[in-house]
Structures
1.
Amino acid sequence: DAGVIQSPRHEVTEMGQEVTLRCKPISGHDYLFWYRQTMMRGLELLIYFNNNVPIDDSGMPEDRFSAKMPNASFSTLKIQPSEPRDSAVYFCASRTTGAGQPQHFGDGTRLSIL
Amino acid sequence: GQSLEQPSEVTAVEGAIVQINCTYQTSGFYGLSWYQQHDGGAPTFLSYNALDGLEETGRFSSFLSRSDSYGYLLLQELQMKDSASYFCAVGSGYSTLTFGKGTMLLVSP
């Protein structure tokens, strides 16, 4: 079975540009999470969806960040405009309902803002 | 809010046993999980404890004491491929996790 699929794997762009990260969760999973990982701050939850509905976006750092989930098989995380401090690895994860169900992570997008 | 403490680095030799400790503070407890992450890779699930006691999965075991807000991951018969970062994570709601900063395990020959 296919796991969580993220694209692109790497993105290098200049400050001020719009960045769009994409995620396809595991089929049948009804929760989707976006994380950001840096050495300084570790793995931080940005936002999560349940049945395509955003439930908690309190981890989104600024209004420059937005996320959508138009259907059960696709989600995007957008940064506009991007800044060098947004450089990090962004992970998408999905899970099914149930206590203790594990989160399945994609391979991440390594984002560098110059 | 939630906070977790785990050592930043642990070293061991092949064949040895290593224990990675995790203490947590949380306003509501929804279980303690462990994830492994190899350098440049994705975090992968190892174990979950909702109740006190030991859970064993092959060479890996995880322990939880809710009264002490404490858990550990025990890795036995260490192999070079076990060199990775290990994260404890506490359920910060029914659906979400708060991750610790991770423990880097270095296994030497």
2.
Amino acid sequence: AQKVTQAQTEISVVEKEDVTLDCVYETRDTTYYLFWYKQPPSGELVFLIRRNSFDEQNEISGRYSWNFQKSTSSFNFTITASQVVDSAVYFCALSRNAGGTSYGKLTFGQGTILTVHP
Amino acid sequence: EADIYQTPRYLVIGTGKKITLECSQTMGHDKMYWYQQDPGMELHLIHYSYGVNSTEKGDLSSESTVSRIRTEHFPLTLESARPSHTSQYLCASSEYGPLHFGNGTRLTVT
């Protein structure tokens, strides 16, 4: 069985602070995908990043960065110099890497509500 | 960029009514999915489809049913709505890339 845990239910920061969202996962698969999605108040989930379990390189995209550590089964997400527009619910998710529809069959974490105050 | 549309955006309905939540996508994706998001925020897969005339149940048991008669259309039906069905329902589609989600339907059953 797969499981994703986001231990932080809510985080509140002041604009320009850095913030890290934690994600820990469990899977028996040797290959898998990890994702981060953002859910703004409008409701849709917006894709942020996908990481293949073979690729442990960290990634930076603008103010966003991701730290994937297979040894600790963690895939943490950092926002540098947070902005009010970053306020949203952030979900970490896991899927099997077994081809076909497994790619879209995601196991989500519980989500972290991020509030950035001006 | 996938375009995926869900209607209605909000629905309040009484117990026992039959409802259909609509989901359409314009990108020709074969794979489509329904996720249920409970008030505690967690999302669970309830249905998915490989393509036309293909439907499967997801990880979370659901009393809803789906159909896939056309590639672009993946409606979800509840034959008799109950308060326990109150939730947000999110539709998604993909080919081999990340899922693209619609805005969701927030269903309240009174």
